[in-house]
Design a protein that fits this description.
- The chain starts with a strand and ends in a 6-residue tail after the last helix.
- 35% of the residues lie in helices and 25% in strands.
- The protein has two domains: 79 residues, Phosphorylase Kinase, domain 1 (2-Layer Sandwich), CATH 3.30.200; 42 residues.
- 2% of the residues are buried.
């Protein structure tokens, strides 16, 4: 049973949803019809890896379920979105150097964590 109310669609596959406790989440929807055996194995492996890792700089998956022939992956919602969206909406001429340094530091800490677990990010 889908326990999230879709509030806004960001793209064909990603939406903003509100749960019963009034918390916002990002919902990624993937049609099960698009899965062949290889794609299904890849998405399952990606979900497993993300769920098994616990680092502040690696996104968490809150929930995964199938509804109406769609796989729904529920993520926490980050109100400022991606770096691309932040530049488009707030930092029109690019990020200040200190913000770039902080972002890169967090990325490197996440990569260091993944490498310590034997995971190489593509």
């Amino acid at each position: 049973m889908f326990q999230y109310e879709i509030k806004q669609s960001f793209s064909k596959n990603v939406s903003l949803a509100l749960d019963k406790s009034n918390k916002y989440f990002a919902v990624k929807k993937i049609s099960v019809d698009l899965f062949d055996d290889e794609n299904f194995k890849k998405i399952c492996e990606e979900i497993r890896i993300v769920k098994e890792n616990n680092h502040d700089n690696i996104i968490k998956i809150s929930e995964v379920f199938v509804s109406e022939l769609n796989l729904h992956i529920i993520y926490p919602f980050f109100c400022f979105g991606s770096c691309k969206e932040a530049i488009k909406n707030f930092f029109y001429v690019g990020f200040p150097e200190i913000l770039c340094a902080l972002i890169i530091k967090d990325i490197l800490l996440a990569i260091e964590y993944l490498h310590s677990k034997g995971i190489i990010h593509r």
